[in-house]
Design brief:
Length: about 325
């Protein structure tokens, strides 16, 4: 058996999925490393089936899995259940990888001897207006540290490799409670950190994230920033560490006030200057309102930032994004 299965969860993005799949099939080390390429269709209607079938007709070896019950955790767990490969690489359906990507990720993972390895992501928002394109491309990127080495910080599942036996044990390593909101990777990595697992960074294993047009808005980015901010408070709440919850709420309140005030001051000098500060304010507010439920995945995906903040933040967002 070859060592790696590449898993691509997808939900109603046929063109983006085809780009992601073709980039995996074009990997320099495909024949040496990849046992299976698994596409997990999380649309109850099975909308990715035709895309996969067309690629299979062209000779591509792709395993199609239909995870009918919507939810990002359901999709990831279904992909894992379909393969027994010892190493799992995740790439999202809005990402694409240059030909060297998988080899660089594998080489770093095995050389470092870690349980999870992450790589850089370069965001693209080509259709966004010029004034907010730089912000959105930074938002969808994760440059990470320079080089290849063991790290303490954790990142997201997109562009990662995990050792199945140590990082993905059990039938449902991804928490089913995160099906609608996301954050399933935050929960997994928090648990792995508690278990003493090790994380690595593969500085050369970069790929592109192509933000869908529907997400190339400040409203979507601010809603996601709010959701990112919720994570530390939510993790502490699940552990019933209420002292830690209060700590994060206090930090968030200060963050929202300081960065929100700075954003209001900067608005007259240009929306592009103010937007990063509204982002930080939204993250702070998320730490405070950690109990709010946002839906970023599946049919119930969030549409605007208006559900994720208080009146002051919404007013700032409206002023900047109009």
């Amino acid at each position: 058996m070859k060592p790696v299965a590449v898993i691509i969860p997808t939900y109603r993005r046929p063109q983006s999925l085809e780009r992601a799949v073709r980039s995996v099939l074009a990997q320099d080390d495909l024949g040496r490393l990849v046992e299976e390429l698994v596409v997990v269709d999380n649309d109850p209607d099975g909308s990715a089936r035709l895309t996969v079938a067309r690629l299979q007709e062209d000779g591509a070896r792709i395993l199609y899995v239909h995870a009918r019950e919507p939810g990002v955790s359901n999709a990831r767990n279904a992909g894992l259940a379909a393969t027994s490969a010892p190493l799992i690489a995740f790439i999202d359906d809005d990402e694409s990888a240059p030909p060297h990507w998988l080899g660089a990720l594998y080489d770093a993972h095995t050389a470092l001897g870690v349980d999870v390895t992450f790589g850089p992501v370069c965001g693209r928002a080509d259709e966004a207006p010029a004034w907010k394109r730089a912000y959105l491309e930074r938002f969808f990127s994760r440059p990470g540290p320079v080089g290849t080495h063991v790290i303490d910080e954790v990142y997201g599942c997109g562009n990662s490799m995990m050792t199945r036996s140590t990082a993905l044990a059990g039938p449902h390593p991804f928490d089913l409670d995160a099906n609608r909101t996301g954050g399933e990777d935050d929960r997994l990595f928090a648990r792995l950190r508690e278990d003493g697992r090790r994380f690595g960074w593969a500085g050369k294993a970069w790929l592109w994230e192509h933000a869908p047009v529907s997400r190339q808005t400040a409203g979507y980015a601010l809603a996601r920033a709010f959701g990112f901010g919720q994570s530390p408070s939510q993790i502490a709440a699940r552990e019933r560490d209420w002292g830690c919850v209060i700590k994060w709420m206090a930090i968030g309140a200060a963050q929202a006030g300081i960065y929100g005030g700075a954003a209001l001051v900067l608005v007259p000098f240009g929306r592009a200057r103010a937007l990063p500060f509204v982002d930080r304010a939204a993250q702070g507010l998320g730490k405070v309102i950690w109990f709010a439920q946002l839906n970023f995945y599946g049919a119930a995906a969030v549409r605007t930032a208006s559900r994720s903040g208080d009146a002051n933040l919404n007013a700032m967002a409206a002023k900047i994004t109009q």
